[in-house]
# Entry
Amino acid sequence: MRQDSAGSSLVLRAVVGCLSLLVVTGIVAYGVQYGNGLSVTGLSRAVPWGLYISQFTFLVGIAASSVLVVLPRYVHGANDSADLVTIGEAISVAALVEAFSFVLVDLGRPVRLFYVLLHPAPSSLMFWDVLTLTGYLLLCSTVLSLTLCSPPGTHPRAVRPLVLVSVPFAFGIHVVTALLYAGLAARSGWMTAILAPKFLATAFASGSALLLLVTSALDAAHVVRIEPVARNRLATMMTYSLAAALLCTGLETFTALYSGLPGLAEHFAHLYIPAHQSLGPAVIMLASTALVVFALVVLLVSPLRRRAFWLHLASGAVLAAVFLEKGLVFVPSGFAPPTLGDDVGYAPTAIELLIVAGIHSAGALVFLTLLRPISARARGLGLGMAVSAHDSRSPHLGGTAARDESALPPPATRPSPAGVFTV
Amino acid sequence: MKPSFTRRLLIVGTGVTVLGGIVRGAASAMGADAAVRPPRPGRPRWALVVDTALCARREGCRACIDACHGAHSVGASRDPRHEVKWLWKEPFAETFPEQIHPLVPEAKQRLPILVTCNHCSSPPCTRVCPTGATFRRADGVVAMDPHRCIGCRYCMAACPYGARSFNWETPAVATTGSYPQRRAGVVEKCTFCTERLAVGRSPACVDACRQQGAGALTFGDLADETSAVCRLVAERQVLRRRPELGTQPNVYYLV
# Structure
């Protein structure tokens, strides 16, 4: 890390220690699950997929959203720092490692996972999901390793084509994940053509929120320097992705309630109307909706949005809202209404929660591990150099000036095309 | 260097996929099975007809269920949420929700209806299976290879009939019959007794029902116009579960 003062390194050690402990606990919990079968989970005949697959879906969205920092720099020619792209790719790699882990812990016979490639079934969307996710993981990790292995200040030539290929893959992984659900005639709540666009919208909203929070934290800790204009752009994309997601939800709600089609209406009731049997999903969904509305108000009222505190609060709200909706409720609620009047109640057990915490901790450790070379590279280049190299129009900005800027968009910063650093 | 590796991976991946598909197609064509009785003109299409009135006449009868679960070592689970079921009864209102209106008498709504895998002609479960562990045979039986199953439960999500059971824990009952022992972590379901079809016998449930003298179950080849199932389906009024989903079930209900 940039400032290896005794204090911050101690904090880092404590964090890494806690994460490692959670990983170990998760592994032990998985041992219990492996030994006893999935009966130790809250899953049942009526709700065969739950927290694991919901978390998987959420993380595929997070993994896809590194495209939000790739597109501006590599397609639209923005002067963003290459470090931002590297951080985005690192988040993607960590999210994909988590996503694969969630699939693995959900399998009844995990050692047979390779059967998916040994006995390929192209009619199954799961086959294509494994293929696209593997491809995207290979692309992101290749880009990352090429970049991190090259000397600071240089940009390996192979990165650009690989990054461009990763763009359709990023969209692809999440679209295919949506199709996995959207093609099931048995599950009326999932079988909607709007699912893939809605997935992309919530993915880009939560992904840009996460990127914004992470880069702000890294900036505040002087690990890497990310230009405020890049983070402003993330805030803008978060706003419109969130609005698009809200529109999709509204459209789904309309179709369900106006048509009154039993399958759709019952699914909607399960999601939003607190009842005796289904209190959980309704409470979570209403909380998620409230967070979305709150975040959207903050993001659309510019005096609020321009203050770092409110922007961070809104980002946190977006991340939490999507985590609740997609990461917790989306998958188990898809089994309501049931095919045969079964009880569709589902609550994860302690074992499931420990495994989930373990996998998230492992993902965080992967990210922290990747962050070390990223920060070293950024340091090797020098912060001032990084800024002036990318924005030659403001060469007067020294490293100290850049470093002293407050964490997130200074009040005067508007996404103006030229002089970004209108200090 | 790296890009060509990625490209090679894509090409090889595509090749493997296509080849796999061809091999699989060929394999399933060859498996057109010793199973069935003297070949009819064209392919057989096994179907089951349940006479709900005859079945209801014997209240509490479990002969078919016990025969099936006995033959395949399907054990009762302590937790009904984790039960493995091949053949069981559900209330009429749950089995045929589209038939229910406010004037349907309470007794009819609660009438137990025998349900099992519908061996659909267009099965969503085999479509979604990522390893081909469940597949539709040429004779119409939707079969299941527990040794190929990875336990992803995608088929359970895709089945509109709740006909598939996952082994949430190691099965409590040891195998006695000809059907292989399952382990925790795989899906199973009714197979129309392929092991009995192979030697020209009816499924265990049908035999048990006949032995009880109920005669509520009729099994046969829908492709054979002279078969009993064909006559029943053509002449009587029949219901199929959730026909609007396009799965084309091969279990018919006389009402």
